[in-house]
Amino acid sequence: MHRTAPLSGRTAIVTGAAVRLGRAISVALADAGADIVVHYGRSKTEAEEVAGEIAKLDRRVVTVSADLSDPLSAAAKILDAAAELGGADILVNSAAIFEDASLVEMTEDSYDRHLAINLKAPCFLCREFARRLTRDRGHILNLADWRAETPPADYLAYTLSKAGIVALTRALALQLAPAIQVNAIAPGAILPPPGGDFETWQTSKLPDIPLRRTGGAKDIADAAVYLLRSEFITGEVLHVTGGEHL
Ligand SMILES: NC(=O)c1ccc[n+]([C@@H]2O[C@H](COP(=O)([O-])OP(=O)(O)OC[C@H]3O[C@@H](n4cnc5c(N)ncnc54)[C@H](OP(=O)(O)O)[C@@H]3O)[C@@H](O)[C@H]2O)c1
Predict the structure, then answer these.
(1) How far is the CA of 2 from the centre of ligand 1 (A)?
(2) For residue 152, which of 216, 203, 205 has the smallest C-alpha distance?
């Protein structure tokens, strides 16, 4: 029996799509039938590789580079790229920065960059996405973090930005209903920070995770496909943490 792919006919923008979780989400959405706008910052070669992988799945794909530290101009550029595919009806805000600093160590520059890239850019991407939506229905998926609702003592600016993402998700779920569903995934220990040693990172994480294992990019990609297929979930923050947030 022939089955239609669940996201067939849909077009998804994925920010930070060239590497790591953004890449896994992009390929999973393409595998589920969606055409993809691959946004990247500096990872041009990797973005072209992902685009090649998506094209092999017979999906349409465009790549677009935009610096999210300039949120309004990035949002316009990314939605212009989506227009090349006839407009988007899915927006996945995955790109982010993640730098450690406690309150006394934190610089104003680090605070401003976290808030601009991790919160202001997703917010104005949502605005541009909603303004330009030409189809009846749309779906926004934000990448949050379990830290947003259980703030630990470290990574202060990052945690504040992700707390904003959770608030944005719930506020927009109300504001943009009934046309646009808005959900978030709150990952736990999925991948070590870029360049980090996997074994050392995993060993340090396991005692805090009730399921006694770390996750993988597939856990996040599967959660993304699940939420984007749903027609009745909105305002939800789905924790994919092995229980760490508890
Ligand atoms: N990995 C985890 O275990 C984990 C855990 C909790 C939450 N999360 C959240 O899940 C999401 C994806 O995580 P990840 O680990 O895959 O993220 P990541 O590797 O740290 O970052 C994803 C991408 O964000 C892009 N980016 C950063 N600053 C940018 C800027 N100024 N302009 C344009 N793009 C910029 C970069 O793109 P380029 O490389 O193209 O420059 C980067 O590759 C993030 O929102 C993260 O906070 C991840």
Answers:
(1) 36
(2) 205
Check whether domain 11-239 has CATH 3.40.50.720, yes or no: yes
Dihedrals phi, psi of 38, to nearest 5 degrees: -90, 105
Per domain, the residue ranges of the chain are 11-239
Q: Which structure tokens are listed for 87?
A: 């407009």
Is the Cβ atom of 60 under 6 angstroms away from ligand 1? no
Asked if 111 is an active-site residue, the reply is no
Indicate if ligand 1 lies below 6 Å from the C-beta of 184.
no
Write down the residue that tokens 């009846």 correspond to.
Answer: 136
For residue 116, give the ligand 1 atom closest to its CA: 31
- Cα–ligand 1 centroid distance for 15 (angstroms): 8
pLDDT at residue 186 tops 70:
yes
51 Cβ below 6 A of ligand 1:
no
pLDDT digits (tens, 9 = 90+) for 215-230: 999 999 999 999 999 9
- Give distance in angstroms: CA of 115 to centre of ligand 1: 14
pLDDT-derived band of residue 42, with 50, 70 and 90 as boundaries?
Answer: very high
Please choose from 15, 72, 73, 94 the residue to mutate so as to test ligand 1's pocket, defined by most ligand atoms within 8 A of CB: 94
Please state, in angstroms and rounded to a whole number, the distance separating the CA atoms of residues 158 and 122.
14
Tens of pLDDT, residue by residue over 104-133, are 999 999 999 999 999 999 999 999 999 999
Number of other CB atoms surrounding residue 20 within 10 Å: 17
CA 9 distance to own-chain centroid: 21
Give nearest CA residue, ligand 1 atom 26: 95
